[in-house]
Design brief:
The complex is a heterotrimer of chains A (239), B (82) and C (225). In chain A, 79% of the residues lie in helices and 0% in strands. Chain A has one domain. Chain A has 6 helices and no strands. Chain A starts with a helix and ends in an 8-residue tail after the last helix. With 82 residues, chain B is an all-alpha fold. Chain B folds into 2 domains: 30 residues, no CATH class; 49 residues. Helix content of chain B is 70%, strand content 0%. Chain C is an all-alpha fold and 225 residues long. Chain C has one domain. Chains A and C meet through helix 4 and helix 5 of A and helix 6, helix 7, helix 8 and helix 9 of C.
């Protein structure tokens, strides 16, 4: 499928260039342009990368779960590659959230870990998808890995909102209907900076997921070639 | 325990940001009055950013290296079997 | 063979095997009791407020023995090489799943039925008049744990690192149940009114519904074809 490969390559190159431009821009904006937040001081600037990372982690979970469901339905190998990539990215971005969170908390609240609801829930999410990756690694063959991973991913993804809700209740936040609270708006500069960082991270996520899928694809190719070489024949060259 | 006033954020961001409990009486407000603390804040900020980009960089590099290695392997295998 | 008959047969088979040898239930009971005893020594209950810790202690004991029960539940199938037979049976595999869930639920229930009175005695617990609510909490949370646990155990017992993988996968997934169970039990022990923990019970109920349904739909993909 040269045409599709070509488009994907082009998309990746474009994404890469855009991200390469956006990242320094973000750093500049976050460090030089945005005003210092009055209550938490400079440390609050971590927020501009902490929040988009969380969004990307959820994106990874969503992609993993959706691709898993599609894989179980269609049994198309590409969906499984996407699921695996999504899970890996979810773990990477969750790790970023879990590390930047405490570093933010320490100077602001004096402790590394406050048992705060969202961070605790994110830790549980991280554990679920680390488990996913370990499970895939423990499978004897790719088919098992794909099927089992899909089951765990779907259960895990369905569990995520329940986990966040239950941990929030546990910490004493009253059960509430989802609604925005009032109060003064976010400073518009801060809001725009956040949007910029959000865009950057989402584009980075997209680039990375394509990259990771290509890696998975190549791993499959190598397996197929090695297998064929052992059997002494070669599959028709993939165009 | 003085509550941290998070009305600075609004809308869905407020929901996202609302945690609502500093667990100690160490508040940034009181601390920020002293320049030594501001410097400390900077150190943590730099630490956080370094960590974030280190993790991303390591992941990106790992994937790229494996990608290149596998591409070479595929090429070699194809050449071998002619 | 009808669906529900299959479910009952699978559960009954497990129970009959157990009644004959009594091996598993005794192991589970002793393990859970051991956990309780360790906690009894670990904390000085003349100082610590036991009512607030009791929920956590009980459910730690239940959850740990539950993981043991789950592991054994599928190990027996492997040992007796019955998996092939199950796969070839002309019945929906989810019936097999539900049968296993029932069996695990009953094993855990048996452990709980022994442990709760023992705890009342050992720790001078006031279980109070809220027996109905306590039963509801026990049933709903044990059911949810058995539901997700059976699904995961069916997978992990097919791997080499299964004993490590089951807790790794199950504990994070069962966090809402654990929180609900511990919080509800604590409220019951403290004698607080039902509406303090009714939302937790609703959460457990919703969890059970969602994950039983999901597992029934997904179980087909778990066993090798």
């Amino acid at each position: 499928m040269p045409a599709r490969r070509g488009i994907l390559d082009l998309a990746q190159t474009i994404l890469f260039v855009i991200v390469l431009v956006l990242v320094p821009l973000c750093l500049y904006v976050v460090f030089a342009v945005v005003p210092t937040e009055s209550r938490m001081g400079v440390v609050q600037r971590i927020f501009y990368f902490h929040v988009p990372s969380a969004i990307c982690a959820f994106l990874g979970v969503g992609v993993c779960a959706g691709a898993s469901a599609l894989y179980l339905w269609k049994r198309d190998r590409r969906f499984d590659l996407l699921a695996h990539a999504g899970a890996e990215l979810a773990v990477v971005f969750c790790s970023i959230v879990l590390i930047s969170g405490p570093i933010w908390a320490r100077p602001v609240w004096g402790v590394w870990w406050t048992g705060e609801a969202r961070l605790t829930s994110t830790l549980v999410l991280w554990l679920i998808f680390v488990g996913y990756l370990v499970l895939r690694g423990s499978a004897d063959n790719p088919d098992q890995a794909a099927r089992w991973g899909a089951v765990v991913a779907i259960v895990g993804a369905l569990d995520v909102p329940i986990i966040y809700k239950s941990v929030a209740w546990w910490r004493g936040l009253h059960p509430r209907v989802l609604k925005a609270t009032g109060g003064q708006g976010l400073d518009p500069t801060m809001e725009r900076a956040l949007m910029l960082c959000m865009l950057t991270f989402v584009l980075l996520f997209t680039y990375l997921i394509i990259q990771r899928c290509r890696l998975g694809r190549l791993q499959d190719d190598v397996q197929a070639l090695v297998h064929a070489a052992r059997r002494g024949s070669l599959p028709a060259a993939r165009t | 325990m003085p509550p941290v006033d998070l009305s600075v954020f609004h809308g869905p961001l407020a929901l996202l940001m609302q945690s609502g409990e500093p667990v100690t009486r160490f508040t940034a407000e009181a601390a920020a009055a002293q320049p030594a603390v501001v410097a400390r804040g900077f150190r943590f900020l730099i630490a956080a950013y370094t960590a974030v980009w280190a993790i991303l960089a390591i992941y990106i590099l790992t994937v790229s290296v494996r990608l290149r290695r596998l591409s070479n392997q595929v090429r070699r295998l194809k050449e071998q079997s002619g | 063979m009808s669906y529900f008959r299959t479910v009952l047969l699978v559960a009954a088979k497990d129970l009959r095997t157990e009644l004959r040898s009594r091996e598993q239930i005794v192991t589970l009971l002793f393990f859970a009791l051991l956990v309780l005893v360790v906690f009894n020594f670990a904390f000085d209950f003349t100082i610590i407020d036991f009512v607030s810790l009791g929920g956590g202690i009980l459910w730690v004991a239940f959850i740990f023995s539950g993981v043991l029960a789950l592991g054994r539940s599928f190990q027996i199938e492997r040992e007796q090489d019955r998996i092939q037979g199950i796969l070839m049976a002309p019945v929906d595999r989810s019936a097999f799943y539900l049968g296993k869930v029932c069996a695990t639920f009953l094993f855990m229930a048996a452990v709980e039925a022994v442990l709760v009175p023992v705890t009342v005695i050992l720790f001078n617990f006031p279980f109070g008049p809220r027996v109905g609510a306590a039963l509801l909490v026990l049933v709903l949370n044990t059911l949810g744990f058995a539901a997700v646990g059976t699904l995961f155990a069916a997978i992990t017992t097919q791997t080499r690192r299964g004993e490590l993988l089951l807790p790794l996968l199950l504990f994070p997934a069962a966090v809402p149940l654990a929180l609900s169970a511990v919080r509800s039990t604590s409220h019951i022990l403290a004698g607080r009114p039902f509406d303090r923990y009714s939302s937790w019970i609703a959460l457990s109920g919703a969890y059970d519904l969602i994950f039983l349904t999901t597992a029934i739909l997904l179980f087909d993909y778990v066993l090798d074809e």
